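Ticket reopened. Same input as before:
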Amino acid sequence: MKLELRGVTKRFGSLVANDHIDLELRSGEIHALLGENGAGKSTLMNVLYGLYQADEGEILLDGVPQHFRGPGDAIAAGIGMVHQHFMLIPVFTVAENLMLGHEETRALGSLDIAAARRRVIELAERFGFRIDPDARVGDLPVGVQQRVEIIKALARDAKILIFDEPTAVLTPQETDEFMAIMRQLRDEGTAIVFITHKLREVREVADRITVVRLGTIIGEASPAASNTELASMMVGRAVELTVQKEPPRVGEGGLQVRGLRVLAADGTVVVDDADFDVRPGEVLAIAGVQGNGQTELAEAIVGLQDRVTGSITLGGQELVGRSVRDVLDAGVGFVPEDRQEDGLVGTFTVAENLILDRSADARFRTVGTIRRRVLDAFARAKITEFDIRTQGPSSPAGALSGGNQQKVVIARELSRELKLLLASQPTRGVDVGSIEFIHKRIVATRDAGVPVIVVSTELDEVVALADRIAVMYRGAIVGIVPADTPRDVLGLMMAGENPTEDAA
Amino acid sequence: MSDRVPGAASEPGGLPPEQLPSASGPLTGTRPAEVPPAPRSNQLMREILRGSVATTVLAIVASMIVGGILIAVTNEDVQKASGYFFARPQDTFAAIWQAVAGGYYALFQGAVINPEADTFEKVIRPLTNTLGFAAPLIAAGLGVALAFRSGLFNIGARGQMLVACAVAALASFELDLPMWIHLPLTIVAGIVGGALWGAIAGLLKARTGAHEVIVTIMLNYVALYLVRWLIRTPGLLQKPGSNQPISMATPDTAQFPSLFGDQFPLLNWGFPAVVVATVIVWWLIEHSSLGFRLRAVGENPNAARAAGISVQRMYVYAMLFAGGLAGLAGMNQILGSVTTGFGDGIDAGIGFDAITVALLGRSRAWGTFWAGLLFGALKAGSFTMQAAQSIPVDIVLVVESLIVLFIAAPPLVRTIFFLPKDDSERSAGKRARLARRRERDDEHKAVAS
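Engineering reply: fixed in the latest deploy. New output:
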């Protein structure tokens, strides 16, 4: 089986999203499509999957030209796609989701659930997954939901599988498991297209790498290429992947957290007796697998959690029990982990988002009215300072790329007088160029003598930024270790063990 | 291979919400926060709000066309002529032209100016009628629009109007005061009454997360029966010497004086009051710092909360304002249109038309103003349409409803008028242009260095 794209061009109005793209896929091969957000990877795959019609060029399957008018045609030709946001119905079981769209029925039109269950078990066994066909999809962890998507595609005899940014929603462990699944599918003879902008994953799993930039193919790279080489190809200029920083000059005071407990709405303990200090001029990174209480810990500091006991003091001021407004006024800068959900109002302009938490500031308000001119000048200054790539202060923030949206959030938080910077997943879903920039700004904030907390599930980021690392597991802090702790030790700590305990 | 993540609760139901994909995905995890989630209807709301002015105008045109077809089909002459269509098709076309053109001319005559009248006053009287009909529609529409912008579907304008009327009547109908104090007092009482009634819904939403649609609908019933009881009970609001469910008459000193004299019976000082309200709402939503927070909550309550905005407080404020504006609409009714005593139907459907007006005005202050004028014109014109051309009033209502239907379905209008592109494609294009510019910039930099 061989799939070829020849000269595929897709235009949206005057914009050329894909410009004469040639691509070849073979069975038993993982082909990585590497490129920054907005490079045209997803558009290309949507053309292949029949969601868009190519304006020029052709798709050949074993040398025969194909004309996909919709995903139905693509599926019939053996192409399956796993979208970044899953196309599953959460209240349905795995088996019900599997049969969705091609339900088999028995007499009187009753659904043949048993057949669907058998199919789930059969496919899961063939590829070595463990999936309960009767589990409600909404109850499953994201990694397992993704497997349901994969099984859905396989159930329709997909010979070619397209994964659109599959690891964006996965934890490191789930990512490793996912890559094992990809290898297994490849060995079974499936052709895989793996769309991503994460270099490590590409180098680990891909047989071939094609780099896409601004709608055109830049070239093919070898999986043996270094991260820096790949990043440079992606971004189109030399990129610095390591963060340059001086040893910390630590001051006194800062943030003290003592005996912090956070209960979820249902009463379960999500942060268990956390104790730590962050002093001015240092970065404390909070590492751990997603869902081990880091989110709640960060939210508790900012005042977004309700059921908090213990003590959080910043410069001697108690923060527990205060409103978000008070905490922000006390000098806390907060970068939420999900910028679209908690960080930005997508329909607001860039300028409005830059003062989202300061609309009552005397600087931006006079007799109850927002001072548009001051705001505009302020926004222009921040756009320049933080290199936010936008058409101007009045374009909607939702139209920016992920990296630039994140820069808006960071610019907003860093433009106040800070006594603490708390950044959750500051570079999640952000392109390489912006990661570099954001890391530099975080280090600059530290060097200005501000205590900084970085919550991250990316070990690379933790190691790059941290002066000390706190590892969380099941709501508790397993240990706080120096930044030069070996990765395997950190990995063990993230699973709940503390090898350094005896030494310390 | 384990199918569970270490750290996740052992039972799958206890999965932390952040392990579910973000809310933009189809598997929306419920958030544990106490902030009531944004109404699901937000999606629809956004779709409507983002429609362009062109879409709105085209929706009106499209509905006028369909309305024209309906006028033609229901016209007796057209029906008669079409009986011998193949013998003399021109008769049918002439009849259709006569019916449709005559109908819309009558609408124009009743709503804008009457060129056939003999005196200037009579020529422009239809316009003043339109303004008079429009005033309460605009006021109530502003209330709904303001709530919309704050993320709330306010279906309760009817109840808020009714309560406003009752409160105003209770507070001031039996007083004997000079006009300069009686009128403002009555207006303020009405606005406060409506505002408090609206705030009940806001408080319930903020404190308990009760859905405002259900709450406001139910409060409409509470208000209706409460007011019915008040106006049926002697000694409370019932008209003295009457056993009908009707209130006492509005005292002369509490009525809106006529704006340009008695030749224009429907236009009174209620209209300028509504214009002032429009300006205030426009300033509040678009330019004030409070409006900024209201809009932030309306667009993304989670981000607003993380930015230190009290979402609960904003919900209460929004409903307070919305109720107050509905109260102003109620005052336009009892201090202007119906001064001989009001019944429980005093809202005259304005509370619900307000939703339509706000949608048509895309929840902008001035948009709502113009939409209210259009609806006032349709209302004023519908009477002449019926009188002059015997076109049923229902046809006008059909046109009104069709406008909303077309506005609520922008893709339909885009298809009818061959308008390409929707917002997502447009923003994708924008992003790509930016990326291209960035590329160029970088090249320049590289060359320079």
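Chain A touches chain B through 96 residues (CB under 8 Å). DSSP finds 17 helices and 22 strands in chain A. Please confirm and we'll close it.
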